[in-house]
Amino acid sequence: MMGTDANTLYSEDSAIMSCFDFVVTDLDGTLFYDRENICDRDRDALHRLKAQGIRCAIATGRELDAVVPALDRLNLWDDFTHIIHSGGAGVYTIATRENQMTGMLSIQTLCEIFDRYVDLGLSFVLPMDGKLYVSRRTALLENEARLLCYPLVEVPDLKTIIYKPMNKIVLNAPFEDIDRALPILTADTDPRYQWHRSHDNYIDCYARGISKGTALTALCETLGIDPARTLAIGDNENDIQLLDAAGTSACPADGTDTAKAHADYVCCPAHEGAFADMCEHYIFERE
């Protein structure tokens, strides 16, 4: 795991004149076009941002432990200064390796969520202690565990293994089952938690008020960055508040219609280099 002093890489002396001081990207479905790989065009764009002194951060629904192996494998650590993870419940500073967490779901709340929605017939997923606990083992979840480098453990009643507050619990199912369940879940007005679709096959549950957008706003305040000078890209419902919080926003052409409606610019599809397309449109073409 690598990390370079952000103040060295992103000093004012090294930065060129730009409309943006901070660029933030979602991972799955955006920078990672197939949840595993980044195209060369996007990698080149990250290098250009770094060379121009523009800070870049990740904003993902993944747990931090599920981001680390991907950045290791793709050798991307030096391209970012921060990781907004767990849907905004955590912010990791790469230079100092400091991880700040907020907005945890209590043990009681997690158990009540399980009891309330177990009859939907979807598989509950709980990333905990470096393992992926699931209420029902499926081929889709076996592939997910491989992707995230997590051991997969099937526990039909997840309540029996929840022993500490967690930042999220997830539902997994085929696309059509997620579509069926989503209106039921998002209609839940419980003040303790909220549901957001994060992928075709996933709906994430976080503490109410937690989002990538609130995390970006707080991080900008910490870093002394004007939110109006931030540029963000995301592809799904859990990115909407991120897109709204940024000064300028973009969405890949293969993102959801809802996310595209909140974006200032619709890029090419993710696998063609949506992140680079955004940077070329707003930053590189203005050099």
From TrEMBL:
GO molecular function annotation: magnesium ion binding; phosphatase activity
Ranges annotated as spanning the membrane: none
SUPFAM superfamilies: HAD-like
UniProt cross-references to Gene3D superfamilies, sorted A to Z: 3.30.1240.10, HAD superfamily/HAD-like
GO CC annotations, alphabetized: cytosol
InterPro entries, sorted: Cof, HAD-like_sf, HAD_sf
Coiled-coil parts of chain: none
Protein name: Hydrolase
